[in-house]
Design brief:
The complex is a heterodimer. Chain A is 39% helix and 10% strand. By secondary structure, chain A is of the alpha/beta class. In chain A, helix 1 packs across helix 2. Chain B has one domain: Cytochrome-c3 Hydrogenase, chain B, CATH 1.10.645.10. In chain B, the strands form 4 sheets. In chain B, strands 1-2-3 form a 3-stranded antiparallel beta sheet. In chain B, strands 5-4-9 form a 3-stranded mixed beta sheet. Chain B has a 3-stranded antiparallel beta sheet with strand order 6-7-8. The relative contact order of chain B is 0.20. The chains are: A alpha/beta, B alpha+beta. At the A-B interface, helix 3, helix 4, strand 2, helix 5 and strand 5 of A face helix 1, helix 4, helix 6 and helix 7 of B.
Chain lengths: 354, 512
């Protein structure tokens, strides 16, 4: 048994990860073995760049495994400014020792300042120099959050500091796990994939792991049936909201946002943005702060299922064509079934392994 | 005389460099530099005012809920709209969950390694099976040779005073606290969708329509957190304090305190909040009221901004701005991205100590009794000035957490009653005005924060924010007076300048 994690929590981690990575449950023992037989915990350097610490906060809400289990049993977090015991030159000594030894994973949170290099200084270095040095001998660089991936909030027009994502700023390849904040399940599963296969998961053209970002919020939204049926919330805190109607007319960016949110959910799978009655603001899309500005303005021309090739607005469906949406519901049902691998992580499977 | 530089100061949100001058083992002078600038004031400009709360929310990921609320409250003043009672209660519940999340995270995750020697815990006699399990776990971790996040901590430092058994118990609570902070975040997500960055509080109220079941769900998740606060956090504070009574003799700071108040009363009067608005000046333990519309002034003599970004302007004035102008790190001139923020020409300390002093002196419900009983317990009955120290900042966190847990339970009872009696208003419809201005003045766990906005032609024409760090990490002001953390550092004993543990302690007491 893994020395630091309870067996139950450990197998839960393995089972959940297998499902999220799109692997069958037959992989669970192999994942367990890969983690258990690691000669040493993989060293991780976590860079806090132009950031708010929200990515770390989100990561620290991981439950299976918990943060304590990750810190004590899965990785060796050699450098993380917000939680490490060491400070100042002693903290930097940890960083240097890890760089010299090599073979570490960098997790980067926050953007790099390229226009005003002194907009971020750490240990007397600009964020460009600091990030270049810290990634110089890394086995892999995983950019988490919308800032480290694509520049994020400070890169909004007019981008006063010249903030850029790590890949852009340094001209290196990174795994990109966007989100404001990013989801802890996606971060943990990416690390487990790396430990299991010795390589990074498959990425799309924007550097995102395809296991998490190949579908849109709209594809798996719990309120999708109401979209298809033309049932919309038109005022916050209303009767329609109480019924869980669709938030499209309130400005939801779910139809254009690549994200696993409706499947992963947040905070021990307690809830998610749409579940709280506010439209999705598209925080996992590159440049969403500018691209989706007008978070409470509805997206134009959202295609409606069942009307392929015909540009039909959801308004039209909602007001006059309700009966025609039966076809739409049918198509959506098929799409959901095909994409339902996350929902294939039933409690019963975990129970049987305990 | 020796100069000691700590860069980066770790275990805080943000990026801080600290330089101190040490003479005969005591800090004689100190300079704090904030080394990150992002430019929120610039890129929120010209945006749709309804988007502004989402953007300004991102100023801090450790206290996002407070920023979200302050931004929304400022916009509500500009829009001329008031949230219904139920929305106020739901916002309070989210804020309270965030406060407890943050206070627990601060005490254990960010602060504990300044006092708790994890290595010493390995030699403790474990008195229960649970403590034995934790000790075994820590021992296996240390024996692995990969110390990870514990590498190079100041273990065995002469200023570490706890016996091995207390170190073990607090190490166990460190691990437990990691789970508790996640629980508090989970409770917040019941109403907010997720944490960090809840989604449900645009100007006008809340977007969600909670059922009685939702409220009970929140209640029972938070019950575990509240139990931890009352049965672990408060006792831990009282157990550790007697070993660190020397912390009562330094870290006093500037003696001026500010809170905008937090946890709304249904009267909407900031002086009636569970932690009421007010200020203390020059160490006189008397509360004066303050107005964010007029009383706050910004200066840039020590900071990397244009002169026009300061000049004593109130952040809400039409010509307020925040334009960067980096020169160089020069302690005699400009050395930080933080502006100097003053009230009545004074540097102001913000945070839990400020809130608890002001609540105590304002006789806010529950505040007087909990402070008085604690003072009596440490042999200082009737002497609240003893709290104005590094020790006071440490101790008041647990007291405030207990007070907030009480207020949360009252808000829960009220919300349940409202839902049961069919009082179903959650959101007041509203429109972006052609022009307007407003300020949302509120408190984050780490202290007073305010967001000032101005609207012209239905767009944001000016947006300025002064978070807690701007007050506490304020640099020298126009008179040359040190900022609150700088001043608190002066007089701090330093046993070993190579291992400046005591300096970290004082900085961390501000919950930065």
């Amino acid at each position: 048994m893994h020395p630091h994690i309870s067996r139950r929590a450990f197998l839960k981690l393995c089972g959940g990860t297998a499902a999220y990575l799109g692997l069958s449950q037959a992989w669970v023992p192999r994942i367990a073995l890969a983690l258990e037989q690691a000669a040493k915990r993989p060293p991780v350097v976590w860079l806090s760049l132009m950031a708010c610490s929200g990515c770390l906060e989100s990561f620290a809400k991981s439950v299976n495994p918990s943060t304590a289990e990750i810190l004590l049993g899965i990785i060796s977090l050699n450098y993380q400014e917000t939680i490490m015991a060491a400070a100042g030159k002693d903290a930097e000594a940890n960083l240097q020792a890890t760089i010299e030894e090599g073979g570490y994973i960098v997790i980067a949170e926050g953007a790099v300042a390229t226009g005003i290099p002194e907009a971020l200084m750490i240990a007397g270095k600009t964020s460009i120099d600091y990030t270049r040095e810290a990634t110089s001998n890394a086995a892999a660089v995983v950019a988490i959050g919308t800032c480290a991936t694509y520049g994020g909030v400070q890169a909004m027009k007019p981008n006063p500091t010249g903030a850029k994502g790590v890949s852009d700023a340094l001209g290196i390849e990174t795994v990109n796990i966007p989100g404001c904040p990013p989801n802890p399940d996606t971060i943990v599963s990416t690390i487990v994939h790396y430990l299991l296969f010795g390589k990074l998961p498959e990425l799309d053209g924007k550097g995102r792991p395809t296991f998490a970002f190949s579908q849109k919020v709209h594809d798996n939204c719990e309120r999708r049936a109401h979209f298809d049926s033309g049932q919309y919330v038109e005022e916050f805190g209303s009767e329609e909201e109480a019924k869980g109607y669709c938030l499209y007319k309130m400005g939801c960016k779910g139809p254009e946002t690549h994200s696993p949110c409706p499947l992963t959910l947040w905070n021990s799978k307690q809830n998610w943005c749409v579940g709280s009655g506010n439209p999705c603001i598209g925080c996992m899309e590159p440049e969403f702060w500018d691209k989706f500005a007008g978070f409470y303005e509805r997206l134009p021309d959202v295609p409606v299922p069942g009307f392929v090739g015909v540009k039909t607005s959801a308004d039209y469906i909602g007001s006059t064509l309700v009966t025609a949406t039966v076809a739409g519901v049918g198509i959506h049902a098929i799409a959901s079934a095909a994409s339902g691998r996350m929902k294939g992580k039933p409690e019963s499977e975990e129970g049987s392994e305990d | 005389m020796a100069r000691v530089v700590i860069d980066p100061v770790t275990r805080l949100e943000g990026h801080i460099r600290c330089e101190v001058e040490v003479d005969n083992g005591v800090v004689k002078d100190a300079w704090i530099s904030c080394t990150l600038f992002r430019g929120f004031e610039i890129f929120i400009k010209d945006r749709d005012p309804r988007d502004a709360w989402h953007i300004a929310h991102r100023i801090c990921g450790v206290c996002p809920t407070s920023h979200g609320h302050a931004a929304t409250m400022g916009l509500e003043e500009s829009f001329g709209v008031e949230p219904p009672d139920n929305a106020v209660l739901v916002r309070n519940l989210m804020e309270a969950a965030q406060f407890l999340h943050s206070h627990v995270l601060w005490f254990y995750t960010l602060n504990a390694f300044d006092y708790v020697d994890v290595v010493s815990a390995l030699s403790a006699k474990a008195t229960t099976p649970a403590l034995q399990a934790v000790q075994d776990r820590l021992k296996a971790f240390v024996d692995s040779g990969q110390l990870g996040f514990l590498e190079n901590g100041y273990w065995g430092h002469p200023a570490m005073k706890l016996p091995p058994e207390v170190n073990l118990e607090l190490s166990a609570h460190y691990l437990q606290a990691l789970e508790i902070q996640a629980k508090a975040a989970q409770a917040l997500a019941v109403f907010g969708g997720k944490f960090p960055y809840h989604m449900s509080t645009p100007p006008g109220g809340v977007t969600c329509v909670p059922t009685l079941q939702d409220v009970v769900n929140y209640e029972y998740i938070m019950k575990e957190v509240n139990d931890f606060v009352r049965n672990v956090f408060v006792p831990d504070t009282l157990a550790a304090a007697p070993f660190y009574l020397d912390l009562a003799t330094f870290g006093q700071g500037v003696g001026n305190f500010l809170t905008w108040g937090v946890l709304e009363d249904l009267s909407r009067d900031p002086r009636q909040r569970a932690l009421p608005r007010g200020a203390i000046f020059d160490g006189n333990l008397a509360v004066e009221d303050v107005d964010p519309h007029t009383d706050v002034q910004e200066f840039t003599g020590s900071s990397w901004y244009t002169a026009a970004s300061g000049e004593g302007k109130n952040p809400g004035s039409a010509d307020a701005e925040t334009e960067p102008e980096y020169t160089s790190l020069d302690l005699e001139d400009k050395y930080t991205w933080s502006k100097t923020t003053n009230i009545k020409g004074r540097q102001m300390e913000v945070g839990t100590l400020a809130r608890m002093l002001i609540a105590y002196l304002s006789d806010a419900p529950g505040a007087k009794s909990i402070v008085d009983s604690t003072l009596a317990a440490i042999g200082q009955a009737g002497n609240p000035t003893v709290l104005v120290s590094a020790l006071g900042r440490l101790a008041t966190k647990a007291l405030e957490s207990s007070l907030i847990a009480d207020k949360m339970e009252m808000d829960l009872a009220q919300l349940k009653e409202n839902i049961a009696s069919g009082k179903g208003e959650w959101f007041t419809p509203n429109e972006v005005p052609k022009s307007g201005s407003g300020v949302g003045a509120w408190d984050a766990p780490r202290g007073a924060l305010a967001h000032w906005n101005r609207i012209e032609d239905k767009k944001i024409s000016s947006y300025q924010a002064v978070p807690a760090s701007n007050w506490n990490f304020s640099p020298r002001d126009e008179q040359g007076a040190r900022g609150p953390v700088e001043e608190a550092l002066v007089g701090t004993p330093v046993a070993d300048p190579e291992k400046p543990l005591e300096i970290l302690r004082v900085i961390h007491t501000f919950d930065p």
